[in-house]
Design a protein that fits this description.
- It contains 25 helices and 13 strands.
- The strands form 3 sheets. It has a 9-stranded mixed beta sheet with strand order 4-3-5-2-6-1-7-8-9, with helices on both faces.
- Helix 8 links the parallel strand 8 and strand 9.
- Helix 12 crosses helix 19, helix 13 runs antiparallel to helix 14 and helix 23 packs across helix 25.
- The longest helix has 67 residues.
């Protein structure tokens, strides 16, 4: 029993706390019902309420049961308050006023002052509760009677009755046999009792003794129909309809006339009442919980009406923010991918072995011919600028997209011009036209002049394409122009070593700075949304707590608990893409290999490590064409995401784009447009109405196959490729614009 009481107590506290979330007005009907049912849940007494319109004899019936004139009765509406009759050793009355004042008197005469209607038939505003204590054996068992004001008189009284009915475990509805079940009584039966889970109801017909015998029989038949149509939840074997002539019963009880009390129906009704209470009283929860369920259902519906719109608003906000975050995250990853690739290409280009392989021969020749500065400007600087711009453009894409830190330009300076000190000329040679001793970037061919200068230039290519160790050592010592050529090659190697080392260091720092550009941060969630999120979480927690407490007392609900509201995770959140890089062994990664070699570099390095120079007339490799196409795709994707960010309702853009990419384009209206589109599908090798994804894939395949850069050394095929790409580009444009 104690465990059950604790369960009811927790349920009552949950009902009160949840009702506070609704911000109900204190005078609202739902607020009053919640307070009433919560107090009733923890009330150990079994309460019986006598209910009905005024002048139906409610107080008279109670006086007859109690055996004295405890309660005020008259021919006009008298009861102006809800009077609770409890057990006491003697008859006394306690009045508690609204301000907390307690009036305690012996007997019940004080009821004439506080518990009846005034001359204007108004209830007193200052009375909070009225209690009468009476030494009756039935009350001693823990039973309380509740004498309610008559209904159908004043709205104020009706509201009080409606409220108090929730605190009754058993309701006695008094009927007037002379005007049985008026429309008002039927409405009250439905609205005040049935719809609120109050089904432990007994009907008592009064004034049947005032009717003629024939009329009594007809009325009794009608009473049976009313009783049978109302499905009262009483113990099996008990009727929910009784006849009690209240005033004769009271007179008989006051006189001690047992026979008269029996003939009035009072004795039979009392016996049934005591037996019903004896069965229901031990399990009061089964009586009270249906009322709790009805009230809880109202609370849940009201709370859901508050929760669901706010939840929808917050979900819409979160979806929009998450969509923006996802678009920015994807853009950041794409930009980082393009930047990393471009930086990787520049890093690979700056690797010493690659620089020497690609440029050493031409640079050494330019040095020997006094044209190094021009070569550096027109060849090396041009290639460097192209690679630098390819990397920097991605950072400007990021700045335009995210508006974080403005990127700096990538500047890799060139080392000082190479210097060469000529060795002493041999005494046994006659082919030197001038004796010169030192050339500092001044042109060895000019200094030596004539055939020796030409021989030096020729030896540069010879030495770079031969393995010096396999040459005849004597020939190397005797060939003055070869020795000078080796000095030029070594000077260029020193130049590229400095250029590579400094360039790679600058590039590494530039990559670190780029992390501040390719990133984005979400601002603080608006205060209004944060407050709504907090309020929503409280409401949902209260709703779920109420569900749990209802389940503990075996009250089932049609509602499902709410899932926890996700917190706003993007508050001050900074995202920087950091894709994992594939580790490459030093043997396979020329940059890593060079960095390792640089740690052991010394002035005695030889040119033997230089690889042969590839032919300058080779066309671009397929990988280079693939890189160009990849950049085009990334730019196209980023441009699309920029457009999405500007669109209202961008949270659905991804889904819309996904849907649109897989559905066939809509049909054009004019025949000319139809012909153009049909021809475009044919050029791309597709069936009519192919999806946009198929169009893009076909375009990708044809670009990789017919890119003009693949045919630079094949004039005939180059022209064909250019024409083919012109048609392919036009076809792709037509199908993309549909």
């Amino acid at each position: 029993m104690q465990q059950q009481y604790e369960g009811y107590k927790n349920l009552a506290e949950s009902l009160k706390s949840v009702s506070a979330l609704l911000n109900l007005e204190r005078k609202s009907q739902l607020h009053q019902d919640i307070i009433t049912i919560c107090n009733h849940l923890v009330n150990p007494s079994f309460r019986i309420a006598v209910f009905g319109p005024f002048n139906h004899g409610k107080s008279t019936l109670l006086n007859a049961i109690l055996g004295n004139r405890t309660l005020p009765i008259d021919l006009i509406p008298t009861t102006g308050a809800s009077i609770t009759v409890k057990y006491g050793s003697d008859v006394r009355t306690r009045i508690i006023l609204v301000d907390g004042t307690e009036v305690y008197r012996s007997g019940t005469e004080i009821l004439q002052q506080f518990a009846i209607l005034d001359g204007n038939r108004q209830m007193r505003k200052d009375v909070a509760s009225v209690e009468v204590f009476c030494p009756h054996p039935f009350l001693e068992t823990g039973v309380e009677f509740l004498d309610l004001p008559g209904t159908n008189d004043r709205d104020e009284q009706d509201n009080l009755v409606r409220e108090k009915l929730l605190s009754a475990d058993l309701v006695i509805q008094l009927l007037d046999a002379r005007k049985l079940m008026t429309l008002g009584e039927r409405e009250n039966l439905r609205d005040w009792l049935l719809d609120r889970g109050i089904k432990t109801v007994i009907f008592v017909a009064n004034f049947l003794n005032l009717l003629e015998p024939d009329e009594q029989k007809q009325v009794q038949n009608r009473l049976l129909f009313v009783a049978e149509s109302f499905r009262a939840e009483l113990p099996p074997g008990f009727s929910n309809l009784y006849r009690v002539d209240a005033l004769p019963a009271l007179r008989a009880r006051l006189k001690g006339d047992v026979a008269a009390a029996n003939s009035s129906g009072l004795a039979a009704f009392e016996t049934a009442l005591q037996n019903i209470v004896g069965i229901l009283q031990p399990d009061r929860g089964s009586v009270r919980l249906p009322r709790v369920q009805a009230i809880a259902s109202q609370i849940q519906l009201s709370l859901k009406a508050k929760i669901d719109p706010i939840a929808l608003e917050i979900k819409s906000f979160d979806d929009k923010q998450n969509s923006k975050f996802e678009i920015k995250r994807k853009a950041a990853n794409l930009i980082y991918k393009g930047f990393s690739t471009s930086i990787g290409e520049l890093r690979d280009w700056l690797a010493l072995p690659k620089l020497l392989t690609k440029y050493q021969a031409d640079a050494a020749v330019a040095l020997a011919e006094n044209q190094f500065k021009d070569w550096q400007t027109n060849i090396l600087k041009k290639d460097l600028n192209q690679l630098q711009l390819a990397a920097v453009k991605w950072l400007y894409q990021a700045y335009e997209f995210f508006q974080e830190e403005r990127p700096q330009d990538l500047l890799i300076p060139f080392p000082s011009e190479p210097q060469v000190i000529l060795p002493p000329k041999p005494n046994n040679t006659d082919d030197l036209s001038e004796p010169g001793s030192i050339a500092v970037g001044g042109g060895i061919g000019w200094l030596l002049g004539g055939p020796v200068g030409a021989a030096v230039v020729g030896s540069i290519s010879y030495l770079l394409n031969k393995n010096i160790q396999k040459q005849d050592e004597q020939l190397a010592k005797e060939s003055y122009h070869q020795e000078v050529a080796k000095l030029c090659i070594t000077a260029i190697e020193d130049y590229f070593y400095s250029f590579s080392s400094q360039g790679l260091s600058i590039l590494a720092e530039y990559e670190r700075q780029a992390e501040k550009v390719i990133c984005f941060e979400f601002s603080q969630e608006p205060v209004e949304i944060s407050n709504k999120r907090e309020s929503l979480q409280q409401s949902q927690n209260g709703f779920n707590r109420l569900l749990r407490e209802l389940e503990k007392v075996k009250i089932l609900s049609n509602h499902q608990p709410y899932k926890e509201i996700p917190k706003y995770t993007n508050t001050n959140k900074k995202y920087s893409p950091q894709p994992e890089r594939v580790r490459i062994s030093p043997e396979k990664d020329p940059v890593v290999k060079q960095q390792q070699e640089n740690t052991v570099k010394n002035s005695g390095r030889r040119v033997e490590s230089v690889s042969p120079l590839p032919k300058s007339s080779q066309p671009p490799r397929k990988e280079e064409v693939e890189a160009k196409f990849r950049d085009w795709e990334l730019n196209e994707e980023i441009a699309r995401m920029k457009a999405e960010m500007r669109m209202p309702g961008s949270q659905t853009s991804k889904q819309q784009n996904s849907t649109q990419s897989n559905k066939a384009p809509s049909q054009p209206k004019s025949q000319t447009e139809k012909d153009k589109i049909t021809r475009a599908y044919g050029i791309l090798g597709l069936q009519a109405n192919a999806s946009q994804a198929e169009v893009k894939q076909a375009y990708r395949t044809l670009v990789k196959k017919w890119h003009p850069d693949l045919f630079v050394n094949q004039p005939q095929l180059l022209k064909q490729a250019q024409e083919k790409m012109h048609l392919v580009n036009d076809a792709y444009t037509i199908l993309s614009d549909k």
